[in-house]
């Protein structure tokens, strides 16, 4: 974020032009070959974003550029993939928080959701890698485990607790009859894919409402 976390709550003028800060933030994040850096600039010309992508490419990270400018206007941006959203002119000229901002949010939602699916964070449309850090998420974790097992609510909670609060680990423990440590090893070996370990499980409890 140009200007850092503080820019989320208070405008920091000129931050988007600070090329040096972009490189510094990439260094702090230790960007490298195992990473994907996604730059977002509605206008397509923001120096901060371009510099961050250039540094990421220098570090051999994969790069994505999301913009609402035509590809012809993005010039020599350093990105492996350019996502140019054709949002057209804004109702208020130059106010990219309107159509451009909304379209960008939708694109980023699609990217992050797809990444989560490919990383094995979901199974049959449920967030099996949810971390239950509050009552609502504990209820969700229990429901997920119950959805793919014959356990009641009490048993599901106890199993998740034994799994270190991880529903995915709990399901591997339940279906393979292994301890938590072995379940975690199997998940790592299968690159996070629950399906690769237990196959397609029948859904025993209706999926929760949004």
Fold and architecture overview:
With 210 residues, the chain is mainly alpha-helical. It folds into 2 domains: 114 residues, Glucose-6-phosphate isomerase like protein, domain 1 (Rossmann fold), CATH 3.40.50.10490; 64 residues, Helicase, Ruva Protein, domain 3, CATH 1.10.8. Helix content is 42%, strand content 7%. The chain contains 8 helices and 3 strands, in the order αβαββαααααα. A 3-stranded parallel sheet has the order 1-2-3, with helices on both faces. Helix 2 links the parallel strand 1 and strand 2. Helix 5 packs across helix 6. The radius of gyration is 22 Å and the shape is elongated. 25% of the residues are buried.
Tell me the structural class: mainly alpha
Distance between the termini: 30 Å
**Helix fraction bin:** 40-55%
Strand content: 5-15%
Can you count the beta strands?
Answer: 3
